[in-house]
Amino acid sequence: MRRFLVWCPDWPVVAAALADGLGPLAPAAVFSANRVLACSATARDAGVRRGMRRREAQGRCPELAVSEHDPARDARLFEPVVAAVEQLTPGVEIVRPGLVAVPARGPARYFGSEDAAAERLVDQVAARAGVECQVGAADGLFAGVLAARRGVLVAPGGSREFLAPLDIAEIDQPAQRLTTDRAELVDLLRRLGIRTLGEFAALVPGDVATRFGADALLAQRAARGEEERPPDRRRPPPELAVTERLDPPVDRVDAAAFAAKSLAERLHLLLGERGLACTRLGISARTENGEQLHRVWRCAEPLTPADTVDRVRWQLDGWLSARSREPRPTSGVAVLELCPEEVVGAGGLQLDLMRSATGAADARAGRAFVRVQGLLGPDQVLVGIPSGGRDARDRVTLVPWGAERRPQREPDRPWPGRIPAPSPSVLPESPWPATVLDAAGEPVRITSRLELTAPPHRVLVRGRARTVVGWAGPWPLRERWWDPPRGAPDAAGPAASASGAGPEVAGAGVSPGTVARMQVVLAPAGETGRAEPGTVAPVRNLPSGRAPQRPSPGRGHRHAEPAGPGAHDRGGRSSRPDDGSGAEFDANSPGSGATGGPQAAAGGDPDEQGEVALLLVHENDEWWVQGVYR
């Protein structure tokens, strides 16, 4: 659908300046978590940048006016802009405070062209609301947002060409950051060599969904100039609209928001019973004297009851407080109505246990957890939170339910040498011993140069053997090398052990505490997976995101120097492992869950016969499986 997007630059700063009575040229910045969320053009000229810490920003611009982020203030003061656009064209949708969308066809036909309609929108907002704005037009909401930020009108059908040269970081927009953080996806795509939206759009959608997940598939649709969700959304039935008559009428925002809370719960209960979730919501308020205000709110993710109440509060605050140039209602609000404009199937949202389309699930789950803690003890109900570390076992910290969710290690630190996201889908609690064999049937080990004695040919795990069709590594890792175990010989590290003369002996000269990690892709059960002589077998969804390197005969992979997964091979290509596919060993089988026992050595699920990828670790001259990729 082709739309006009009206964008007010730096709106959080503009709203804060209006609330504090600052002039348009005053340097100002809005902070969230002690970092710059948005800043004015004058502040940018002084060197202030988004993401900068407060002390550094004030050091660069001593006269900087500081304000805390307030979403309610941003939405309340944006009401005059919405009212000004609505006077010129119907069908206004609020994407977020500072950005509205309207259909392009009607205004373009009425004013003669899209250029004329865009000029009228800019003049209307400046005259009625007193703020500056930019207008863009494109096919698709995402392309329209980027067009508005650049002040261009993209030709019909040209959204994909317009987006193709733009940087991949554009998929991490503020509207998505409210619910989904795509910064990690952007970082991963860059490490894989995908720099522009055009390169991302050229990938096969099925591979994107398998490799990166559902949210990445939505981002790819946006990069192609399409709607993030398919256009065949269901039209909500009329009975989904809910209405509340307020007796007596209310003229205060807090009283109206309190009434909207029960109304929102009723709406989401109806949606949940039908397996639906709302992505566009119409909110109508009508007074005793017949005055009415109707707004349509668009959200990147399905709305929750709390989100719905917030939008009712923001909408009524700007209307009842007469912050727009329209006259204040002459009587209190007598009728509130919530009407879903667009719904999607809730079954495809993939919400976790602590998040659902209705607010009741949180309370039920919390009460159940507290009851179990009362029966078994506080430490028997644990919650996993992301943590920092180089090893897959260190990436999750388990804390008791109800305790402060603080990781043992900061996850946002670099952690060079770590296995990057996504992590293996199955991490056995007790190690699965493994045997790696070469083509001659001899065990494959690690040499003093931290290389393989021979290319891996077969892997035996839990009584099963499969042929290796692809592999990457090994990647050595030694933490706390300055503090060797008591009684262990002091080693200067891999470089020192590799500098001596003489033949390489498997396991000899390897520093204590050094482990080597390798990823292997095993052929489906019953297939040999043999490659032609002198070639490397093609691998689907290899964790490194590419075909494996060509091994040197009898020497495994040669690297310029031992390093972690972030190293580069001699061809300049990244050797970082990223993902895998399939899993032969069921996470629910004995030995992979929270319990062990005599059956821990039993085989995996016999129904799992497809291609699998394993993360193998070589430690103390033995191989074991640390993770399985699904």
Topology, element by element:
Layout lengths: L1 E6 L3 H10 L7 E5 L2 E5 L1 H5 L8 H7 L4 E4 L2 H7 L1 H10 L4 E4 L2 E5 L1 H7 L2 H16 L4 E6 L1 H10 L8 H5 L10 H4 L5 H9 L5 H5 L3 H8 L1 H10 L18 E9 L2 H21 L2 E12 L4 E7 L6 H16 L12 E13 L14 H17 L5 E5 L9 E5 L31 E6 L20 E4 L2 E14 L16 H5 L16 E8 L89 E8 L2 E8 L1
Parallel strand pairs: 2-4, 5-10
Antiparallel strand pairs: 1-6, 1-7, 2-3, 5-6, 8-11, 9-10, 9-11, 12-13, 14-15, 14-19, 15-16, 16-17, 17-18, 18-19
Helix pairs in contact: 1-4, 4-16, 5-7, 6-7, 13-14, 15-16
Structural write-up:
With 630 residues, this protein is α+β, with helices and mostly antiparallel strands. Helices cover 27% and strands 21% of the residues. The chain contains 18 helices and 19 strands. It has helices at residues 11-20, 41-45, 54-60, 71-77, 79-88, 105-111, 114-129, 141-150, 159-163, 174-177, 183-191, 197-201, 205-212, 214-223, 253-273, 305-320, 360-376, 494-498, and strands at 2-7, 28-32, 35-39, 65-68, 93-96, 99-103, 134-139, 242-250, 276-287, 292-298, 333-345, 382-386, 396-400, 432-437, 458-461, 464-477, 515-522, 612-619, 622-629. Strands 7-1-6-5-10-9-11-8 form an 8-stranded mixed β-sheet, sandwiched between helices. Strands 14-15-16-17-18-19 form a 6-stranded antiparallel barrel. Strand 15 and strand 16 form a beta hairpin. The two termini are 37 Å apart. The relative contact order is 0.07. Residues 348-358, 485-506 and 529-607 have low confidence and may be disordered.
